[in-house]
Amino acid sequence: MDSTHHGDSRLESSASGSNQRAAKKSRRSPRHIEPHNIVRGFTNSEVFGRPKRCFSKLPRKFVEDYQERFKEVNGVPAALHKLFQLFEEQSFDIKSPAVKELFKIIIEPIMMEPPVTNACLEVYYSGGLELCVNIIVNTFYNIHENIGEDVNIKEVPEDVMDVVKQILQIIQVVSRTLDIGISHLCKNVRLLHFLFSLLTLREKRMFADATLLLEEMLLSEPRVVYLDMKKIPCLPAVLNRDLMHIQQAHLYHILVSAIAVGDSIMGMDASLEKFDEILMDDAKIQLNKANQEYLLSFPKFLDHLFASTTKSVASTIPGSFAELLLRVVGDSFDLSMLDIDAEMAEEYSDSAIYQAAMYCEKSARADGYLMLSTLLSGKCRKKMQEHVMSYDLIRGLEKSVEKLIWVTTGEDHFPSHEEGPEQAVKIHYFRLLYAVADHHIHRYLLLNREELSEIESIAVSLGMRMPDDFDKLDKTKCCERDKGLLVELIEKMKRESRDSYLRFWMTRTLESFLRGARCKFDQVFLLKRGLLEDLFGILLSPETPSSEVIQGHFDLLASLMKDNDVAFEGFSRIVDCADKFSRLCHIVENNLVDSNMFVRCMVLSLRHFRSCGDKFQDLIRSSRVLRLYSPLRKRIEVIFNLVQLLDIKTLSQENVSCLNTSIIILLIADLDGELPVYLKAISTYREDYFTTGKELLTKLSKLLEFWLKHYSYSFKEHDIKSLEEVTGFKFERWKVLVRDLIDQDASSPSAIVRYLSLHDNPERTRMANLIPTCSRTC
Q1: CA 597, CA 557: separation in Å to the nearest integer?
Q2: Residue 331: what pLDDT?
Q3: Burial tier of 610 (Cβ tally within 10 Å: 0-12, 13-18, 19+)
Q4: What string of DSSP letters covers 576-645?
Q5: Which residue, 358, 576, 709, 726, has most beta carbons within 10 Å?
Q6: 3-state SS assignment for residue 668
């Protein structure tokens, strides 16, 4: 999931009073800077965080004295001062030795590891970032011409290549080091035009630096501007160009950043309030959709995307380094892509060279997978699912999965780590499979013909029918190998260690196969692969797994076991003693955010089995876990513990399921005519804990008010559908219950407000205390 940058938009400061008039005058000559009071400039920069617009007007002696006092800035103030003065001259030339020397002085402390903070501050507060942008724009564009007519890709002459690189690095490193937002630079269409042009250049460092700066502009906070792809004149030429494989990857990386509006640019722990604020901005949502539609309107872009993500990977070491690169990475590739020169290549063994090439290939393929999964999960998912068939995506993935995903590159020269290409390519591969399978009949394409026949046989044995659109599925597009991609994923997951972060993504992918209307034959098909044994084996291991692994495993267990008697019988066989069951309960209780979907599954399944009459009575009596969640006092305890964890300000995509689980338990109580009993019991919950029952009901009421508002937005339709599918309850019934709970009529037995006054009425409190209290132990 992606990080955001928090900072202010101090570069967006505007002039006032006489400065506004000065700003208007300055438009006549783009390089002319109007003088203003020096003291006021410094005051503004210190108090309001505004750049010094007239840095060039400072007395030279003043700058030199400042530089002498702060030696760690390494000559940056004087160099900036001189650069400002040169830029004001009509004869300014980016190719001149003087300009190149000044940039060399400025960038030296900035590119240190770590960067010299005072040097970055000096560049920022002096207006150096704006100067860098102006130099680029004035050098490569005629600012008096309409940029909309300039559709050609800009070429960078060799003699200014180094200066352009330094300018890009200065902007990017200063903004990152100081954590300042630069999304407002997206307003400068010429700058965008130039940076996208750089993505097509053969020189690696150039398009790499352009990528980093574009990403910083697109994702930095606050996001002042969202990119409109149609307004970048050269973008069609970029999308239609035959780029090197790694350049395509850089392009995909940027395009994903551009079409991410809410969920992709914010972590799962970002508040729902902030998500709603972003998603309620219809202009942003429509722009996001328009950008995706725009990309899909370029057939050549789609050809490149699917070809680059499905091409085969070389299996042997060829006779020469150049031939190896040609086989593994593709044509139009040179040594600079790997930062390896010909002399270094001579010193590498064949295996090390292959590692280098594969390391590069995995990095590039990860971005391609990410581009595909983002489009498949976006506003144009229906159209993209059609392309899954037309481009034969699944069989294309089969060509490379064994060598690209399941074989780890040697670590002698290119170590594998959590954020490196080895992990990234696997994670984005899993995300791609998830996007293909999620709520779509194409999930069956992840199986081969034999596995499809097996799942049909299971359906027949259960007296069930396959989905209506199953017969329409083109089976010639499914997997061809001995094991389909899904079954192969299960077997590989079993070999992953207990603490492997990949287990989270693997379980998420398997869960997507079960999403949608629950089909028992899909569950049984996966259960036959030994999933229950593996999942419970990890959860019950002596050392507790990570939070991500716990969450992924409990969520998949919830999907596998819901309403499935075969799964509950398997549970009793695996968790076959009191010690194992106690260990499981301990993990559930101490990781409620991660395990609440499993708890929800138990409550819903118990209701399902009871509704079937005598058919499952033996199962209910013999199952430890069903008996555990049967008593009223245990369910109240679950509600209390879940709601204690929540707060409107911290309610997020990650923990909103806890609130939904609490509502489901109350909904079942309401259907059984026991809602008043539940509310009374909660209100008088033992007060030897941090939160009293009355305080908890007050919090629950506020959470429910937010919940009703949150799920009323049109963009929540997909989430509402998922809630209905997972629980079996129509959303209208959810809303009826929530409205009853937050009703302000104290005479209503279903209104929370009625039970908030229990402590004010001794007789009512005495009666309520007759209800059994809850224990936190299993």
Answers
A1: 9
A2: 46
A3: middle
A4: -SHHHHHHHHHHHHHTHHHHHHHHHHHHHHHHHHHHTTTTTHHHHHH-HHHHHT-SHHHHHHHHHHHHHT
A5: 358
A6: helix
Structure tokens at 709: 């508002």
Structure token pair of residue 526: 């996966």
Which residues share a beta bridge with 674? none
The tens digit of pLDDT for each residue in 461-519 reads: 999 999 989 999 999 999 999 999 999 999 999 999 988 989 999 999 999 999 877 78
Query: How far apart are the C-alpha atoms of 200 and 304, rounded to whole Å?
Result: 14
Q: Determine contact, residues 596/642, Cβ cutoff 8 Å.
A: yes
Could you tell me the two tokens for 367?
């971005």
C-alpha span between 184 and 221 (Å, rounded) = 10
Cα–Cα dist 85/717, whole Å: 57
Helix, strand, coil abundance in the chain, percent, nearest 5? 65, 0, 35
Cis before 749 (ω within 30): no
- Say if residues 269 and 652 touch (Cβ distance below 8 Å): yes
Q: Which residue has the tokens 């959303």?
A: 731
The per-residue pLDDT for range 356-366, each reduced to its tens digit, is 777 888 888 99
Structure tokens at 97: 């030795």
Q: What is the DSSP letter of 155?
A: P
Instruction: Name the nearest CA neighbour of 741 among 692, 695, 675, 691.
Output: 675
CA distances from 574 to 269, 567, 571, 583, 778 (A): 34, 10, 5, 13, 18
Q: Which residues pair with 58 in a beta bridge?
A: none
> What single DSSP character describes residue 470?
G
Q: Read off the amino acid at residue 528.
A: K
340: left (phi over 0), alpha (psi -120 to 50) or beta: beta
Note the pLDDT tens digit of each residue in 530-554.
999 999 999 999 988 999 999 999 9
d(CA 325, CA 320): 9
And the tokens for 395? 């069989």
Sign of CA dihedral 718, 720, 721, 722: positive
pTM: 0.84
Tokens of 298: 């370029």
Q: Count the Cβ atoms, other than its own, within 10 Å of residue 621.
A: 9
- The 8-class DSSP code of residue 54 comes to T
Give me the phi and psi of 362, to 5 degrees please. Answer: -65, -40
> Who contacts 763 (Cβ-Cβ below 8 Å, separation ≥6)?
none
CA distance 422 to 411: 10
* Interatomic CA distance for residues 147 and 189, integer angstroms: 8
CA distance 368 to 307: 10
Supply angle C-alpha 213, 214, 215, rounded to 5: 90
Which residues are bridge partners to 271 per DSSP?
652
**Distance separating alpha carbons of residues 190 and 138, to the nearest angstrom:** 10
